[in-house]
Amino acid sequence: MSIFSENIRFLRDQKKISQAKISADLTITRERYAKYEDGRSEPPIEILLRISKYHKVSIDLLVSIDIRKFPLDDIVKLPGNKIILPVVVDSNGDNFIEIVPQKASMGYLNGYSDPEYMESLQKMQLPFLKNGKFRAFLADGDSMPPFADQSIIIGEYVERPEDLKAKKEYIFVTTEGITYKTFVKRNSRTITVAADNMFYEPYDIFLKDVVEIWRYVRGILPQDYKPHYLPDEESLKNLVDDAKRSISNLEKRLLSMKTK
């Protein structure tokens, strides 16, 4: 059975009502409703909307999240029934910061809303990061420039794309993976982001592909990290101009040799 069919069966059981009762309330036949619960049929959008309003649970949650894993009251109280963000706490009720390895990014994309998966991740606590929901992402190789291999990048959860601030750094979890970028601007269907490296042009990410957004708050570098100091923009421009002049002079010399 699908997540949707499991969810509507669970919600009906929680209300302790029969299939005949709920199908009458939804103005459909019991046989038709039974097919939805058994996973033998998928409802059209108008019926899906009725079921969503009946249970006061968003369509997004009904079709994508196993809501049996969460207290029903917590789901209903969420504004707009937004995707539930699992929070792992210690015995004192203080939040843990889960560490997501870059190598496990695809596993995270599949399990970010699953409390059992979040429990399986390594965790840490920082005394100066208590108020809010934080997550840590472990860089692997040059996967999250400018951070070095094995750096830990910590972000605070951003609930809505509307809360993004221009020229601020974020960790974007998308359907393509996890990336650290500077937010440039929001467009109608995309957001424009930029890398710290000036050699890369800014690019757009479709909003529909954004799974999570975390505002960068702290970076923890490996003990043996040695920073690579890059020249400033003006010095770099001079180096490029010098290289161009050298190439031009070399081309002239080669051309003069051919004409002799």
TrEMBL record:
Residue ranges the record marks as coiled coil: 233-260
InterPro entries in the cross-refs: Cro/C1-type_HTH, Lambda_DNA-bd_dom_sf, LexA-like
Listed Gene3D superfamilies: lambda repressor-like DNA-binding domains, Umud Fragment, subunit A
Domain HTH cro/C1-type: 8-62
Gene Ontology MF annotations: DNA binding
UniProt keyword terms in alphabetical order: Coiled coil, DNA-binding
Name the UniProt record assigns to this protein: Helix-turn-helix protein
Organism: Chryseobacterium aquifrigidense
